[in-house]
Amino acid sequence: MSRRLADVEVGAELPEATSRVTRADLVRYAGASGDFNVIHWNERVAREVGLPDVIAHGMLTAGIAVRAVTRWAGDPGAVVDYQVRFSRPVVVPDDGSGAELTVRGRVAAVGEDGRVRVDLTVTSNGDKVLSLARAVVALS
């Protein structure tokens, strides 16, 4: 069921969303996206370029984050704009459980045109991994 504009207020919190990213997820994402950059699967190369370990694809991280908004809105097609800046990589250890991403959202603005801006806070292992993350959704 799609969320209605009349039910949305500035300051409202979205339900917190937690997701796990494993090395297997990185393999699947690489296959789907065609992004086979070595830093997403080879620990040795990742460390040689100064990373602590293999990292998640940035667009995978961004996709997981916006899913919290689409679930809240009730319609993936309601997202009309989405922006993020990558502030830290999501390190994905080879331990079977991977990395945890936590997404929190808050309604920052409600326009008369039915557009709602949602600001997101996305963390992994206590570190903010996306900054200036925000989505605009069109609600009826």
UniProtKB/TrEMBL annotation:
<comment type="similarity">
    <text>Belongs to the enoyl-CoA hydratase/isomerase family.</text>
</comment>
<dbReference type="InterPro" id="IPR002539">
    <property type="entry name" value="MaoC-like_dom"/>
</dbReference>
<protein>
    <submittedName>
        <fullName>Acyl dehydratase</fullName>
    </submittedName>
</protein>
<dbReference type="Pfam" id="PF01575">
    <property type="entry name" value="MaoC_dehydratas"/>
</dbReference>
<feature type="domain" description="MaoC-like">
    <location>
        <begin position="17"/>
        <end position="118"/>
    </location>
</feature>
<dbReference type="InterPro" id="IPR029069">
    <property type="entry name" value="HotDog_dom_sf"/>
</dbReference>
